[in-house]
Amino acid sequence: MSSGFLGRMVFGLAVALAAVAGRGEPAPSPVAGDASAGRTANLRNSVGVEFVLIPAGTFRMGSADGHDQEQPVHEVRITKPFYLGVYEVTNAQWKAVMGSVPSQWQDDDRPVERVNWDDAVAFCGRLSTLSEEKAVGRVYRLPTEAEWEYACRAGSATRYSFGDDVTGLERHGWFDGNSDGATHPVGRKQPNAWGLYDMHGNVWEWCADWYGAYSAEAAPDSEGPAAGSARIDRGGSWNAPAGYCRSARRYRIAAGSRSRDLGLRVALSAPGAQPPLAVGP
Fold first, then answer.
1. At what angle do helices 91-98 and 117-129 cross, to 10 degrees?
2. Which is nearest to 43 in space by CA: 28, 65, 61?
3. Are 199 and 235 in contact (CB under 8 A)?
4. Burial environment of residue 43 by CB neighbours within 10 A (0 to 12, 13 to 18, 19 or more)
5. Contact, 161 vs 172, CB < 8 A?
């Protein structure tokens, strides 16, 4: 694991957060050098997964000039704040919870891959049952598709979180134009405005939802359809063209799919907020 990555995992003094203290949960600590440290305190759990608090808010989901499945553009309101992993889940973190690593590239600081939707959900469930996590009432889950795009955009309305100019992707993500045909250690590119790394590229990330066509109607905490035949992954990957790494890009995929460019990022409901979707399948 690189010194730069380890440096971002150095924590300062505990920060007292009233909402967290009210549930008896240890207060998160700010991460030295993290882009979001000035905005809110980060949380690090017992296996080293770091989270940043994503605020509630409203955004326009989809793209008017993208793929048909990204349309129509519609308003989504995220009514409750939630935590989202600063990084994609790494091989080391997966091994600490699940016992073995399925990835083609197994370095500790690379993102876990070759996991299907059920594997990803099982990771969230097993992580939630660890004694240190149960003691503070943390229940982990996959983010909804709406949460994922909202967090990826980080207040932007452009093709990428950093703007419309595709040349900026070189600085923000690993894709087929710069990856040399492999995953890379998490956190090596620039983060978005909310301190999230690798939201564009490296590995595709599973979302909780079933795939479904968008509606033009505004929706609070959109969860997708109640049932379906395929799931959703987001973000693009090391072997995807730049256009597949856009904030709005959706990818419909069978829940049982496993590939060397498919991983996950974990969500956690903030204290007092109920998860919009169950952790289980």
1. 70
2. 28
3. yes
4. buried
5. yes
The first and second tokens of residue 250, run together, are 């959706």
Residues 6 or more apart whose Cβ sits within 8 Å of residue 273: 80, 81, 82
The gap from C-alpha 219 to its chain's centroid, in whole angstroms, comes to 21
Q: How many CB atoms lie within 10 A of CB 160?
A: 23
- Residue 127: strand, helix, or coil: helix
The partner residues of 83 in beta bridges, in order of sequence, read 53, 268
Superfamily of domain 53-269: paralog of FGE (formylglycine-generating enzyme) (3.90.1580.10)
Q: How many CA atoms lie within 13 A of 76 on its CB side?
A: 23
Copy the structure tokens of residue 94.
Answer: 């997966």
Beta bridge partners of 22: none
User: What is the full per-residue pLDDT of the chain (281 aa) written as tens digits?
Assistant: 444 433 333 333 232 333 333 333 333 333 323 333 334 558 999 999 999 999 999 999 999 999 999 999 999 999 999 999 999 999 999 999 999 999 999 999 999 999 999 999 999 999 999 999 999 999 999 999 999 999 999 999 999 999 999 999 999 999 999 999 999 999 999 999 999 999 999 999 999 999 999 999 888 888 889 999 999 999 999 999 999 999 999 999 999 999 999 999 999 998 755 444 433 33
- Note the helical H segments in 8-43: 18-21
Q: What is the pTM of this model?
A: 0.83
Tokens at 110, concatenated: 């690379």
Q: At CB < 8 A and 24+ separation, what contacts does 4-7 make?
A: 4/187, 4/188, 5/109, 5/185, 5/186, 5/187, 5/188, 7/32, 7/33
DSSP percent split of the chain into helix, strand, coil, nearest 5? 20, 20, 60
Cα separation, 57 vs 80, in Å, equals: 8
